[in-house]
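Thread: Modeling a multi-component assembly for a lab meeting

Hi all, long-time lurker, first post. My supervisor asked me to bring a structural picture of a complex we are working on to next week's group meeting, and I have zero experience with this. I have the sequence lines for every component (713 residues in total). Could someone generate the structure of the whole assembly? Inputs are pasted exactly as I received them:
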Amino acid sequence: MTKLLSIRLVAILVGLGFTVVALYSFVVGAYAAITEEAPGHLPYEEPRDIAYSFDGPFGKWDVQQLQRGFKVYNEVCSACHSLKYVAFRDLEQIGYDEGQVKAFAASKQVPGIDPNTGEATTRPGLPTDYFPSPYPNNVAAAAANNNAIPPDLSLMTKARHDGTNYVASLLAGYAEPSAELLEEHPEAAPGPGLHHNPYFPNLNLAMAPPLAMTGQVTYDDGTEATVQQMSEDVAAFLTWTAEPTLVKRKQTGWPVLIFLLFATVLAYLSKNQIWAAAKRKNG
Amino acid sequence: MSFPWAKEYTPTNGVMKFLDEKLPLPRLVYNAVGAGYPVPRNLSYFWNFGVLAGFFLVLQIVTGVVLAMHYAANAQVAFATTEHIMRDVNWGWLMRYAHANGASFFFIVVYLHIFRGLFFSSYKAPREMIWLLGVVIFLLMMATAFMGYVLPWGQMSFWGAKVITGLFGAIPVIGEPIQIWLLGGFAPDNAALNRFFSLHFLLPFVIAGVVILHIWALHIPGSSNPTGVEVKSESDTLPFHPYYTAKDGFGLGVALILFFAMVFFLPNALGHPDNYIEANPLSTPAHIVPEWYFWPFYAILRAFTVDFLFIPAKLMGVIAMFGSILIWFFLPWLDKSPVRSGHYRPLFRKFFYVLLICMAVLFYCGGAPAEEPFVMMSQIATAYYFLHFLVILPIVSQIEKPQPLPYSITEAVLGSDEKAVLGENAKAAA
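Re: Modeling a multi-component assembly
Sure thing. I ran the full set together rather than chain by chain. Output:
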C-alpha cells in the first residue's frame, strides 16, 4: 500500500515537473509573440480550380487532351525538363499505335554504346527506352539554367499540393508584380534572372515563361493553342505521367466497393439474426 | 483458463480426432476464437478494434512481403524501384497504396483501441499485462512505421530520418556517437536505408509475436466490458462464435469499405506531396512533418522551446515525447479507482473528454508549421497531457464518488438477473 502510494506521489511530482517546464516554454513564447513581430509570409496564391475529365470517382482520361499535352511537353518543356520514369512504349496508353511510338522513339537520340569501339555514343531510341534527359548531368543542367536545375517532370503533379491545378495555374500565371505587393514586401521584387509568378511559393521563379503566346504549339486536332489551353493540356499530360494507372485505379475501386457493400449488408443481417436468437433465449 | 461453463472441444470425425491427439490446433482455435471462449454479452462496437488491428497487421505483412519482392533497398535506386512498382509491376500500385494506407488504418484502429482502453480503464487488474503488452506493440508499430516511411527514399523519407535520428543527438555526451551508430554514417544514406529495410521487414513479425502474447494474456481473465463489472455467471457471457465472429465480421466489412474507398479514390490524401520528390541531401523541405499518426507526439517534441535550468530544450522535448508514451506503462498503478468503466465515473469522464480535446489540439499542431499560435497551443495541450495522466488521474481516482454499478452484466443488459451466482461476488457491487 505504501509502495503504491509512493508510485503515485512520484508520478504527481514528475507530472507537475513536465507541466511546469511546458508552461515555462509557453510563457517565454507568448512573451516573445507579444513583443516581437513574427516574420510575415509572402502572399502566394492557391492554384485555380480547373475541371478535368479525370477528376472525381468516375474520372476518365481525355485522350485528345493527353495527346495535346504530350505535344506541348515534347515541343516546349522537353528542351529543359526530363521525364525519366516514362518510357516511349507508355505512349501507347494515350492512343498512339505501335508504329507511331516506334517512329517517335527513333526520332529521339538516347545514350548508347558504339558496337565497334565500345565508346559512349548516342543511338535512335526504341519503344523500350525511357525519355532521355536534355542534359548529360546535373552540373550541365545547372550551368545552362542560371544555376537552377530544371526538375524531372514525371511525378510533378503528385509532388506538389493540388499538383494538376498548380502546374496549370503556374504556367499560365506569369505576371508583373503589383505595386501594392512591392510596397508591402519589397523583398518580393524579382532578382536578376528571376520571374514573378503569384502561384510560386516564394513568388520568384528561375524559369522564364515557357508558354508565351497563342499558337506556340500547333495542335493536330485543330484546338486553338492559347496559353491557358496549353497550360491545362500539359498539366493533364503530366497527371498521366505521374500516375498512368489513375483511371484503372478508380475503375477497379467501384466493383470492389460494391462487392464489399453487399457483403457488409449480408454480414449485418446475419449478425442481427444470430443476436436475435440470443436475446429471445435469455430475455 | 476461461470460465467453468466454457464449452469443450469434441472432435467429430476421425481426422479431427487424429489431429486433436497429435497436435490440438483445432482445439486451440476453438478455445481462442470459437465457441469455447465465453465473452461478456454486452460488448459494444468499441470492442471490434482489436480484431481489426489484427486484420490490418496481417494485411501489412502480406502486402509488404509482395512489395519487398520488387523493391531494392539501395539509395541509388530505391526511389526508382518504388516508381517501378507503381508503373510496371502488375497491380503494384494497388499493393503500394494498400500498404501505405494500411499503415494509416492500422494506426486509426489502434488509436481507437487504446482510447477504448483508457475510457473503460481496461488496463486495471486483472488485465495489467494485456495493457503493458499493448503499449509494447504500439511502440514497435511506431518504430516499424517510421522505418517504412524512409524506404521510398523521397524528400520526407530522408529528412524525417534525419530529424528522428537527430533526436538521439540530444542525449548529452553519448548522443552524437549513438546517432552515427544508428545511421551507420553522419547522415542518412545507403547504410541507414539498408538497416531500416532489414528492421522494417523483421519488426512486424516481432509485433505478431507480441500480439500472440497480448491475446494469450487476454484469455486468462477474459475481455473487459462496457459496465466494467466482471463476469459472474454463465448468463453474463455468450460464446465468441457465432456471436462475436458475426459482430466482428460486420465491423470488418465497414472498416474495409472505408479502407478501400481511401485506397482507390484518395490514395495520397494522407501522405505528403514532398515524398514524390527523390531524396536530396542538399535541399531541405520548407516544412518537415512526419506521417499524421505521429503528429500528437511530434507536437509534444516541439512544445519545449526554451532551455530550463541545465536541461536544453531539445533534450527536454525528446524526454517528453518518449515519456508521453512510456507513462502509459504506469497507468494500472496510477488509477486506483475500483470502478473501471467511465460510464460510472462522472468526474473522470469530464477529464477524459478534456484529454480527447487535448489530443486533437496536439494532433493539429503537430501537422502545422512550427509557428505561433500553434506552438503556444501545443504547449498548453502538452502541459495538460502530462497533468492528466500523472496528476489528475491519481487524484481523481482517490476523491471521486462513482455512480452505482449494475449488479451484473446480465442485469445491465436485460434489466434483472435472477440466475444463481457463481464465484466470489455473491453480493451486489456498490
